Sequence to fold (563 residues):
Amino acid sequence: MADALTLALIVLYFVILVGIGSWASKKIHNTEDYILAGRSLGFWVFTILIVCSICSGMTLLGVSGFGYASGWPGIWEQIFVPLAAAFCIIFFGVKLNAIGKERGYLTVQDYLADRFESPRALRGLSAVAGIIVSLIYLVGQYAAISIVLVWLFAIPHWQALLIAGVIITAYTVVGGLYAVSWTTLFQGGILIFGVLLMAPFVIASAGGLEHINTVIAGVDPNFVEPWFPSPAYASYAYATPEFLVSFGILLMVGLACAPHVINNVLAAKEARFFKWAPLVAFSIYAVVMFLVKFTGFAVRSLVEEGTLVLPNAVNAQDYSFIVGVEYAMPNVAFWAFFAVIVLAAVMSTTDRLMLTVGTSFAWDVYKNILRPSATDNEVLLVSKVAVVLGAGGTLLLAINPPEMLAWLIWMGIGVMLATFAVPLLAGLYWRGATGEGAIASMATGLAAAGIFGYYSKFVGSLPVHFSLYALILSALAMVVVSLVTARSASTTLDGTRTGWFIQSPRSAPGAGTPGETWLVDHDSPRQQ
Amino acid sequence: MFFGLPLLTGIVVGGAVALVVVLLALWGLMFREAV
Fold:
């Protein structure tokens, strides 16, 4: 598959990434620079970072594959996932960014520890849960990278992993979030431009959207309906209305509170970015996702008409985008560019995950729990070592990926939803939420996600996604335990802007810190 | 028919996207910038 042009483009691409990493390393002077790029991210760097942290290799391969297999009922994924970016910015970003600057948070665990007055237990639990989920996700990303490189260059699996791992680790270790965010802007630009350029060709080559819809409706009339009828009648027909509701919550909220996504809001330079970032992030992401999905429909149509044949593989539908572009754009120059696009999609999530694992361990576990006296330089060093160790470990796992990798990744998103959503939302918006409630909620969510996830995989199918049950139990645990325990101090609640608002409804622009005056007289009578 | 889709699908999916865009635009318009 590889030719000189493809090889040259990929080498150039890697050189640019390492170059950005080298430039970024000069800007790192302390831990805050490394973890949060000195809270200096501009509008576009921040917005594209949020989008590309969510948008992984699954976007190109999995989304088109899902479109191939399920038709239009799966289109909701293309609304829910981009909505995760908007949800994260609006419901978490506005408050966390402001409080983070005031109180010096470097990670979202800093917020949880501060708001719930639990410097060790909650911080430790959330950090460990975040690191485990990120590591699972990371194995999946490396597996995807190696699939792309093996397919491009016909090199052994381990060589592909080593090349990608060394390059990503190099720029992430030396440049921290500066490197990750700027390489993501570069990679995101390539991804967006590439999909906008290539998907229309594939759709046109299949006869246009109207013709494609007619063909796939002939395969199963429900392929052109907005959802499958309930109960599901075939393995691909799980997108029933009730499942889609749980799927929507899972994707929109679960991805929004994933550690590698939510931590980005702490790094935005100015609060005013949150005005239009939700709409811009959603629009860009949705356009890209819809086009990729339509490519999956197009390839299904071409296959049904006998024009194309998918490879004989277990997950044959995941080759839809690749096969579609190969068919529609035989020109070698486009092909080389396409290789870079696929790599960009995968690598832009991988680096953010690696940095999250490293910084979460160094800051939340090492500095704040194991060795509070550690100096800034020591934390920086531990952070870098943790990135390298995390990368090494996941690379080893990715050489022989667990058979149930796809299930593990979905499990990871479910765990993120069940573990983090309730403590974060209740912490930010409910003054009655207590530290004990947060720990109970997190532990219940984690355990319930494991139990329901196991049940849905190995025992029997559930009408909705397993994570919804875990989320409900997690919320119940938060409410019940919070109501019977002493609430957090008013100074803490006021300092962390806790209350039923995003931006304070009373304070006029320029009249001081939003929320300050409004908070005090809205406490319920129940006190310590 | 809407691009070869049943009208219901076109309305539901198109409507959902339009609703999200309108809500996010409203968010942008109502956002108060600190002065």
